[in-house]
Amino acid sequence: MLLPSIFGENLLDDWMDFPRMEFPDIDRKLYGKHAAHVMKTDVHEHDDGFEVDIDLPGFKKDEITLSLDNGYLSVSAAKALDKDEKDKKGRMIRQERYSGSMQRSFYVGEAITEEEIRAKFEDGVLKLTIPKKEAPKLPEKKTIAIEG
């Protein structure tokens, strides 16, 4: 049946949660019922920096925004589907494509600037290259001698 349910994808999913002979739905267990709205991310550490791969399938380059504020790198993606568009094949019965916005933030340190971060979007994957940079060292705490 192709109608949405108020209980989720299947009413019996939550009631009859017993082991099956097939592979379990890993994404559903990790991210809950909002798994389709999470930016799946891989972070690789290298000697000179980090490489971050973020899956954004179905998005275009102009629908993605990167910003750096107080050491936090924020990745935002927003897309809207035109619901009033008539299909040549008939009316829409069910729509499962994602429409909306999502955001994810990573702390990269306050020493990193926008010019040092490299971003490339290709085949639905946003690839970020973030250099490693040590924060400036704070001066040592000195005490003041009290006379008397």
Explained architecture:
This protein is mainly beta and 148 residues long. It contains two helices and seven strands. The chain has helices at residues 12-15, 26-31; strands at residues 41-45, 49-55, 64-69, 72-79, 100-107, 118-122, 125-131. It has a four-stranded antiparallel beta sheet with strand order 1-2-7-6, with no helix packed on it. The chain is elongated and about 90 Å long. Residues 1-6 and 26-31 have low confidence and may be disordered.
Order of helices and strands: HHEEEEEEE
Distance between the termini: 89 Å
- The CATH level-2 architecture of the domain at 37-82 and 94-133 is identified as Sandwich
Mean pLDDT: 76
Total number of β-strand segments? Answer: 7
Broad structural category: mainly beta
The portion of residues forming beta strands comes to 25-35%
What's the helical proportion of residues?
under 10%
User: What's the CATH topology label of the domain at 37-82 and 94-133?
Assistant: Immunoglobulin-like
Shape estimate: elongated
Tell me about the biggest sheet? 4 strands, antiparallel
Helices, by number, come to 2
Radius of gyration: 23 Å
Largest sheet, order of strands side by side? 1-2-7-6
CATH class of the domain at 37-82 and 94-133: Mainly Beta
Low-confidence stretches: 1-6, 26-31
